[in-house]
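Example for tutorial group B:
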């Protein structure tokens, strides 16, 4: 990005941050999610400076970018909700205390079903050590693809657990 373009975007950011933040709050509620939506919108402007600068309405372009990011954040929330429900259903026949007692056997079982690097990815998200977004960035994939990968692994593990505990 050219220096003058960068200065224009930065000046526009400083001047219009509050207005865009309030727009994001109307979509997402107050908090870090609204801040992220605004920051991601300006990041999009930095990645597509010609499109942003040549738009008829700079604020309109950014509002649309904020709305797109808000929709993305809401989808991520939906995925997270599905994830937590899925983890509770992972082994419905087992009480959590029984799983804790057999944790070594459980880990061995999981390692036999899923490659080590995929299992690490799965456990980082499942243990809340990492988010879908962080893992997507780490792996260089979209967060939706990250969620789908997580779900595939979860289903493999669920089938293996069901088969194991049927015995």
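The residue assignment follows.
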């Amino acid at each position: 990005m050219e220096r003058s373009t960068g200065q224009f975007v930065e000046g526009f950011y400083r001047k219009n941050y509050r207005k865009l933040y309030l727009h994001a709050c109307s979509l997402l509620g107050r908090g870090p999610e609204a801040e992220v939506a605004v920051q991601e919108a300006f990041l999009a402007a930095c990645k597509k400076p010609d499109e942003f600068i040549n738009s008829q309405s700079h604020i309109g372009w950014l509002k649309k970018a904020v709305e797109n990011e808000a929709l993305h954040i809401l989808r991520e929330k939906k995925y997270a909700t599905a994830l937590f429900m899925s983890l509770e259903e992972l082994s419905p026949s087992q009480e959590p205390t029984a799983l804790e007692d057999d944790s070594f056997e459980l880990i061995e079982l999981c390692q036999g079903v899923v490659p080590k690097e995929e299992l690490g990815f799965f456990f980082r998200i499942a243990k809340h050590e990492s988010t879908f977004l962080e893992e997507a960035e780490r792996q260089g994939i979209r967060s939706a693809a990250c969620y789908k990968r997580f779900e595939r692994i979860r289903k493999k593990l669920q089938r293996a657990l069901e088969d194991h505990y049927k015995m």
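Residues 76 and 144 are 8 Å apart (CA to CA). Compare this with the pattern of hydrophobic and polar residues in the output above.
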